[in-house]
Amino acid sequence: MAAKTRVSLLLGGGVSVALAAVALWVPVEPPVPPAWQPPAQAAERTERDLPALGLLWGKVRGWSRVGPGWTVLWQPIHGMWLVSAWVPDDPGPIRWRIDAAPWLPGVRLSRDAAEALAGRSAAVAQPRERLGRRDWQVGETRLLGALPAGGEIPAAAPLRRPLLQAVLVGLLLAGAVSRHLVPGVPSPGWRRAAVGVVLLLRATLPELPALAPMTFQPGVRPWVAELAFGTAAVLLLGALMFAAQRFPATVGSPPVGWLPVALAAGTVAGRLEPAAWLVGAAGLELRLPVLVGVAVLLGWLAGLAGNGLRELLRFSAFARVVGLSLLAVAGVALGGAWTGVTLAVVAAAAVERGWGTWMGAGGVWGWVFGNVWALARWESALWTALAFLLLGCAVVAIAFLVRMREGVAEATPSVP
Amino acid sequence: MFRVRYVLQVLLAAAALIAAVALVRDRGVPGEVQAGALARAALVRLGYEPLGEPTATFEGDQELAWALERARPGPAGVGLARGGGGALRWRVVFPGGGEAQITVDGVVWSLRRPVPSAPGPDLFPSLARAQVEAAVARAVPDPSAWQLVRAQSWREGGHIWQRGWFMGGAGDLPSGWRRELELEMVGSTVVSWRRTVHPLGTDLGVVTGRMGELRLLSRPALLGLGILVIGVFVAAAEAVAYRESTAIARGLAYGLVTATAGSFASDTLVAAPIQGVVVAVVVALLPVWTDLPRPRLRFGPVAGVALAAVALAGRAFILGAGGWTPVTPPVPGDVGPIRLLADSWAPALAEEPLLRGALPALAAPVVGWWGAALLAAPVGVLLHPLPTVPLAASLALELVLQVGLAVVARYAGVGGAVLARGTCEALVRRGSFPVGPDWDRVALLGVLLGTVLLLWPPRRE
Prior knowledge:
The structure holds two protein chains of two kinds.
Chain A: H1 3-25, H2 39-49, E1 59-66, E2 69-75, E3 81-88, E4 95-100, H3 111-118, E5 126-130, E6 133-138, E7 141-143, E8 149-150, H4 162-181, H5 188-203, H6 222-246, H7 259-272, H8 276-282, H9 287-312, H10 317-334, H11 339-350, H12 356-375, H13 379-411
Antiparallel strand pairs in A: 1-2, 2-3, 3-4, 4-8, 5-6, 6-7
Chain B: H1 2-24, H2 32-45, E1 55-60, H3 62-71, H4 75-82, E2 88-93, E3 99-103, E4 108-112, H5 125-135, E5 147-156, E6 159-167, E7 178-186, E8 189-198, H6 201-241, H7 248-264, H8 272-285, H9 300-320, H10 337-381, H11 391-429, H12 437-443, H13 445-455
Antiparallel strand pairs in B: 1-2, 2-3, 3-4, 4-8, 5-6, 6-7, 7-8
C-alpha cells in the first residue's frame, strides 16, 4: 500500500472517530419519550393485569409506539372483534378498548370488566338482557353492552409533512428520469444489494404486519388482513427491486472520507427527531434483517432522489449551493421525523455522482441507528443497534478494501 | 385460404352472437309490469283509486339479499330475497298520489295512500288497540303470526292518528330472523304500512364480513396500480425528452371517453377525470412500446362472450360444489341504460390499458411479456371479486378471467382486451338490470360491434 494511501486512511479514520464521538455523545433530548420495555413485555403485562373482558382475545397482532407507552392489539382468529390496550412504560393504569364488527349485537363483558368500567363501586354488577344488547347494572350506573366498549386510547401524532413529502417524491421522479437521460455505468453491487435486501425482507414478511396494526379491522379475519398487507408489501418490494434494476445506481467506490460525515449527521438527526415506527421494528424478533433491509432500500431511494436534485441544480454552481442549503435547512427545521431522510438526500446530492448512493445509504444508516438508540432503550434492541452499526462499518470496509485491491491489481503489470 | 378464413370468421361471429343472446335471454330483474298492477290493486283495497300510469324504480338491499341466500342455500334463499325477505323491490309511484313497494316476486312490502279528506270516525285510545290489531290483516297474509308490541296515538290536522308496531317472528325466514311491521291509521282508515326484516347477526356477518375483507384486499391492488402509474409518468417524461413518436390525439380522445364513462358509472377506482388523464397518457404512449402485440379488435368481443360464459359457469360450479356465491347480482345504485353501459365499459376502458398495456410494456424487459401479464393478473383479481364462501373460490374465478384476458391481450392486443372485458362485463352485469329487449340491446352492444368487425370485408394481404 502506498504511503500516501496509508496517510489518507489514517486521516479518514481519525476524522471518523472524532465524528462518531460527536454523534454519540452530543447530549440531545428526543421529543418522544423512549421505550424502556419491548412491546412483547407490554403485552404480557396487559394479559396479566387487565380484568378478563369476557371474550377471547386471540393472538397479539400488532403494536405501535404512542407517547410514553405501547398500544398493543389482539384479535381472535374469527376476526369479529379487536382488543387494544395502551400500556404505559411506568406502572400507571392500562387503557383498553374493544371494537366489534358492526353487525354483532353486543358482547357480554365479564363482571370484573363491567365493575372496572363502572368505577369499582361497592355495588355488585347485575346482568340485564335487552333486545340486541347485554347490559350491566352496577349500582346506579348502567353499562350498555353495545360495543365498542372500554375507553379511548391515545393516538399517535401523524407523521405527515405534505410539502416536504411532495418535494421528496418529485425528486425521486426526477432522479428516475435523470438516470435514464444521463446514464452512467450501472453498479452491479448496488443492484445485487437491492435484490438481496428485498429477498431478505420477503423472508421476514410474516413478522411485518405487526408494524401496521391499522391493517387489522373488526369483522375482517386476521389472515385476510395479513394477506392484504403481504400483497401490498410484495408489490412494493417488487416495484423497488424492479426500479433498482431499471434505474441503477452509478458505479463508484465508497467515499470512506465522507461516509462518517453522513453517518454522524444521520445519527444526530435520528436522535433529535426519531420516527416512532422504527421503534416498533426494534420490537420484532427478526429486527436486524428488517433494519438492514429498510436502511439499504431507503438509502438507495435517497441516492435516487439526490441524483434528481443534483441534475435539477446542475445549471449553476450558485443554485447548487443555495438549493442544497435550503433543502437541508428545511429538513432540519420542518422535517420532523423526515429530517434524517431529507439530510440523506442532500448528502447524496452534494457529492460526486458515483458516491451519491453510498452517501444516501450512509445517512440513512446513521438515522436508523440513531432512531433505535434514542427510543428503544431495552437491552436486546440496543445490542441489535450496535450490531447494525458495526455491520454497516464492516460492509463499507470490505467494499473499500476490495476496491483498493482491484486498483492495486490493475496497477500491477501481469507476469507473461 | 383467404376465403376459408373469412367463412370461419362469419361462423365465429354467428356463434358469438347466438351465445351472447342465450346468455342475456330471460336474465334480469322481473316484475316491473306486475308491480304497477299489484300496487294499484292494493291501494284499491284500502279504498283509494290511484290515478295515472305509475313510474317504477328498482331498489334493493344488497347485504340483506345475500344474507338470505347464505342463510337458506339454493333456490329457497333466492326466492326469499325476491319475495318474503323483501330484499329486491320495485318502488311504484302514482302521479296523482299513492306509493307502494312491491317485491320482484309480487309481495306488497309497503304502501302509502294520500290522507283522505274524510278518514272516518276517530278512534279513541281505549278502542284503538283492537282496531289497529285488526288492520294488520290488510297488510300481511298471515295476521295470526303478528303481535302488536307497541302503539302510539296523536292528534294532527283535526284527526287522531294511530301507529302500531307489530312483530311477526321468523315466519318463512331462516331461524333467528325477525319480521316487523309498522302500520298507520288516520281516523279509522289505514293509510300506510311498511314491513322490515331484521337478519340474524351471524348470517349478515358472513356476508358483510366477506365484503369488508374484499374491500381491504382491494387496497393492495390499488397500490399496485399506483406504482404502475408512477412508472407510466416516468416513461412519458422519457418519451418527451427523447422526442419519441406518441399518439397524443388518440390518447386525448380515449381519455375523454374514459372520463365520461367513469362519470356515469356507479363505482370507479379513483375520480373519473384522474382515470381519464392516466389512461390518456397510457394510450398516447402505446406506439412507444413496440414490444406489445398488434391489436386485432375483431376477436375481442368474441373472447368477451367466452369469458362471460366462463364467469357465469364458474359461479354455478361454486354453488354446485357446496360453496356459496351470490345468485342475486349486485344491486346497482341507479337503474338506467346509461348506467348499464357505463358500469360495463368504464372498468374495461380504465383498467385494461394499465394491466394489459402499461404493465407488460414496463416489466417485460425484466420478466418477459408473459411474466408481466401474469404479474397483472393478481392485481386485477383483487379489484372486483364477489364475496364467496370460501373466499378463495372467488379469487380463483377472478384469476381464471384475468389469465383469460392476458391470453386475449397476447393474441388481440390491448384494444382486443378492452373490447373483451367490456363485452364480458356487460353480459355478466345484465342480470342486475330489469328484463326487457332494450336492456338486452345495451348489453349486446359489444357483441354487435364484434360481429360488424368480423363481417367487415377484409383487405387482401
